[in-house]
Design brief:
The protein has two domains: 140 residues, HAD superfamily/HAD-like (Rossmann fold, 3-Layer(aba) Sandwich), CATH 3.40.50; 77 residues, no CATH class. Strand 2 and strand 3 form a beta hairpin. It is 45% helix and 12% strand. By secondary structure, it is an alpha/beta fold. A six-stranded parallel β-sheet has the order 5-4-1-6-7-8, sandwiched between helices. It has a two-stranded antiparallel sheet with strand order 2-3. It contains eleven helices and eight strands.
Length: 235
């Protein structure tokens, strides 16, 4: 039996390939907001560190680990809209964004459930689009709890949302892991007292994540094998 009884997953870059999902989508959103104004399009791209030519979100972009509120606060002065109005529009568009599920992810979640591991999601995305993405991918029912940055528990790198999940699942942090593709994920996990597991399906490289991680895996699909290799807990 593994000593890990619960795993909390980040969403974007962990369950879903980050660039394949959000790189193209972000370009379309910026173009919609610009309404043909090339100068405005370039200013918005610069504000959120987006490469218009390659249609890629750059590693330092606020989109990588920021909340929708933070992203809208960054864009609002550029587009001369209120952050609240922009947030409503972006959440609606984000809920409909096609998601690129990491290959083998659904089977992996089933394997973890078969091992008796409780599963949850904590994303800095808003809860409504997060649920829409998980439902569209056919994996929403795999998770005991789904928490977004607007669910009332705070957002990463603060550990509070992770602690709230573990409290609901009745699992001690020492028996839980946080899996994510960014330092925000790993710092939150460590601050909560959890095992911190990095994955490389986001924008960060292994050298970026390793200092804050207990282990870095190529993708989350390697989790069952990694868990099976852990030593049995002392009794």
């Amino acid at each position: 039996m593994t000593r890990i009884k619960a795993i909390v997953f980040d969403k974007d870059g962990t369950l879903f390939d980050f660039q394949a999902t959000w790189g193209v989508w972000a370009g379309r959103v910026l173009e919609d907001l610009a309404q043909g104004d090339r100068a405005l399009l370039q200013r918005m791209a610069a504000a959120i560190d987006y490469d218009l030519d390659q249609r890629l979100i750059l590693p330092q972009s606020i989109v990588v680990a920021g909340t929708p509120v933070e992203i809208c606060q960054t864009l609002a002065p550029v587009v001369n809209q209120s952050p609240d109005a922009l947030l409503d529009a972006l959440n609606t568009q984000a809920a409909a964004a096609p998601q690129a599920l990491v290959p083998g992810l659904k089977d992996m979640l089933g394997t973890l459930q078969g091992m008796g591991v409780r599963l949850a999601v904590m994303t800095n995305d808003s809860e409504r689009p997060a649920r829409a993405h998980l439902q569209a991918a056919g994996i929403e029912d795999c998770f005991d709890m789904i928490v977004g940055s607007d669910s009332g528990f705070g957002h990463k790198p603060n550990p509070d949302p992770l602690l709230a999940i573990l409290d609901r699942l009745n699992v001690d942090a020492s028996c839980a892991a946080m899996v994510g593709d960014s330092l925000h994920d790993l710092h939150a996990g460590r601050a909560a007292g959890m095992t911190a597991i990095g994955v490389l399906t986001g924008l960060a490289q292994a050298c970026d994540l390793s200092p804050a991680a207990d282990v870095v895996l190529p993708t989350a699909t390697e989790l069952p094998e990694w868990l099976a290799g852990l030593p049995d807990p002392l009794v």
